[in-house]
Design a protein that fits this description.
Tetrahydropterin Synthase, Chain A, transmembrane helix, Flagellar protein FliL, cell membrane
Length: 178
């Protein structure tokens, strides 16, 4: 009698297992579908980004027109030399005055901007002095990145003082701190 009771239970459990397998997700189809959608999305996103962002990049590079990585100037860009001058540096001890002798050149977009920079040389020198008088000798000479930071501050100060983006880059051609 025990055998008869177990047989119907075995049939029921096999039927339940079979229906459970049929109700579950079909991973054999789902995984390749996800992989294909991911690849298509990546390729499509790359193509769209390249198409739309390349246009913006070309506009940005055409305004500067630098030869990437070479440091050479394009035909339109001009360097405007700012005459050498001496600036008092900030100090904690008033009896220990420190100075910086500085000569810079400013990179501008074209000859028109170069003429405008020469016309506004007093404003440019004032902007440089305002940046430099806030600096201590240790700020300028502390590490290898400090001169790069100084050049960026000078560029920002010049552009801010002139009220427009005049200086693309500032080059320090002579620097003595005493």
């Amino acid at each position: 009698m025990d055998n008869k009771k177990e047989a119907p239970k075995a049939k029921k459990s096999a039927a339940i297992e079979e229906t459970e397998v049929k109700k579950g997700p079909k991973w054999g189809i789902l995984i390749p579908l996800i992989v294909i959608l991911t690849i298509c999305g990546s390729v499509g996103g790359t193509v769209l980004a390249t198409h739309f962002l390349a246009h913006n990049t070309e506009q940005a590079s055409s305004s500067v027109k630098r030869n990437a990585g070479t440091g050479k100037l394009s035909d339109e860009e001009k360097l405007v030399s700012v005459p050498k001058f001496v600036v008092n540096l900030a100090t904690d001890d008033p009896s220990n005055t420190q100075y910086a002798r500085l000569k810079i050149s400013i990179l501008v977009e074209n000859a028109d901007k170069a003429a405008e920079a020469k016309k506004n040389m007093a404003v440019i020198r004032d902007a440089v002095i305002n940046v430099m008088k806030k600096k201590k000798a240790t700020d300028i000479l502390s590490n290898s990145g400090s001169v790069t930071a100084l050049k960026n501050e000078l560029k920002d100060g010049i552009n801010e003082e002139l009220g427009e983006t005049m200086a693309i880059q500032v080059y320090v051609t002579d620097l003595v701190v005493q």
